[in-house]
Amino acid sequence: MSRELAAHGVRQGIDLHADACTSCMLCVRECPTWCIDLTSHTEQITEEGARRPRTINVLDAFTIDFGLCMYCGICIEVCPFDALEWSANAESAGHARRDLLQDTDQLSAKTGNP
Amino acid sequence: MRAMTYSEQVETLRSDEQSWRTWCAERQETGWLLDTMTLADHGDHLELLAHLVHDETWQRMIVTFPLSGDVLESVADIFPAADWCEREIAEMFGVEFTGRTATPPLLLHQHDGPPPLRRSSWLAPRGEKPWPGSSEPGDDGRQGSNPGRRRQRPLGVPS
């Protein structure tokens, strides 16, 4: 979906696939407008047959401030796991400045992904 | 100075042999018009960038002119379109245009500080808000998480 949209110059919104995000912080660090906030914590999981538990990053919160975002798409380009993609759903306007902050649930709801 | 047209005709001129004003006057006499003009701050030097269009052939030309300092001769009397561009460049990049009677600001009537589009000018919000990229993956703010890891710094922000 995202490549087709980008090929047609459609940059209406950004969707998050939270299950694909590894909290690597690349999008947050590359964002020129500092509009992405990400918090995560580590958890140890034990896989069957593994000698020792594996440490993974678990995403706690992912927020895009669409009052700052300039739709440059660097976060989408830089994501190694395609957790971010262009969306045809335009970000809706709000009555207050805080309405432009979209969290994990709002960003994921449009994709239908968790 | 480097100039080229979209019809793949590339012309290379030297800024130390020709003045910006003389070059513009010659182009104006041969039917060229100024489309738009701006400046780029390359860190060690400033470079003027201008687009010209030919009055009859509609040929387009892009010309770059490296500045030796931050003073340039005005060409507003040769190309009237340059008047607006020079006012813009003057207030955004702090370039002084000689030969003009006045260079009134366009947008920054109450601006106090260095010219905003120069590399030496920093964005105030960068100093007010902590960089969101400073925390590490899996770092939930508790002490002892990711010990010994060198902290990342944001690009283009003074430490």
Fraction in helix of chain B: 10-25%
Helix and strand run of chain B: EEHEEEEHEH
**Overall pLDDT level of chain B:** 82
Instruction: Output the radius of gyration of chain B.
Output: 22 Å
User: What is the strand arrangement across the widest sheet of chain A?
Assistant: 2-3-5
Helix content of chain A: 10-25%
Main pleated sheet of chain B: 5 strands, antiparallel
| Class of secondary structure makeup of chain A | alpha+beta
Biggest sheet details of chain A:
3 strands, antiparallel
Q: What is the molecular shape of chain A? A: globular
Name the helix and strand elements of chain A from N-terminus to C-terminus, one letter apiece: HEHEEHEEH
For the secondary structure, the number of strands of chain B is 7
Please provide a written account of the structure.
The complex is a heterodimer of chains A (114) and B (159). Chain A is α+β, with helices and mostly antiparallel strands and 114 residues long. In chain A, 19% of the residues lie in helices and 28% in strands. Chain A is built from four helices and five strands; from the N terminus they run αβαββαββα. Chain A has helices at 2-7, 26-30, 74-78, 104-109, and strands at residues 13-16, 36-45, 54-65, 84-87, 101-102. Chain A has a three-stranded antiparallel sheet with strand order 2-3-5. A two-stranded antiparallel sheet of chain A has the order 1-4. In chain A, β2 (36-45) and β3 form a beta hairpin. Chain A is globular and about 50 Å long. Chain A starts with a helix and ends in a 5-residue tail after the last helix. The model of chain A has no long low-confidence stretch (mean pLDDT 85). Chain B has 159 residues and is α+β, with helices and mostly antiparallel strands. Helix content of chain B is 17%, strand content 25%. Chain B has a five-stranded antiparallel sheet with strand order 2-1-5-4-3. In chain B, β6, α2 and β7 (96-98) form a beta-alpha-beta unit. The longest helix of chain B is centred in the middle third of the chain and has 12 residues, at 82-93. Chain B is elongated, with a radius of gyration of 22 Å. Chain B starts with a strand and ends in a 31-residue tail after the last helix. Chains A and B meet through β2 and β3 of A and loops of B.
